[in-house]
Amino acid sequence: MDGADIIAAIITKAEGIEKSNRAITPDEVKTLKAASFLRILTGETSMATTTNEEKKPSLAPNWSCKCENCGQTPTVGKSRLCGPCYFGEADMAGGNW
Ligand SMILES: [Zn+2]
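Above are the sequence and the zinc ion SMILES. Below is the predicted complex in structure-token form.
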């Protein structure tokens, strides 16, 4: 086994853990951390797209909810605030984020 094989084996193992919906053991956490580090090293992913990024709540415009501050639609994800109220930028009106 050379270096590339070891990296591939760790990433394959991490993918198996990521796909399972059961609780993750401390050992598996180590594997996931090692895999995300290796993905960055091998250029498979950038620092900005590590696993934490995917767990952020969706900011998709929600047209069925009015802003509880000013009454505009759409609101940002489940925040109940429109773009300008949520982001503090008037340019964010009308789902423009
Ligand atoms: Zn608002």
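Strands lie at 61-62, 75-76.
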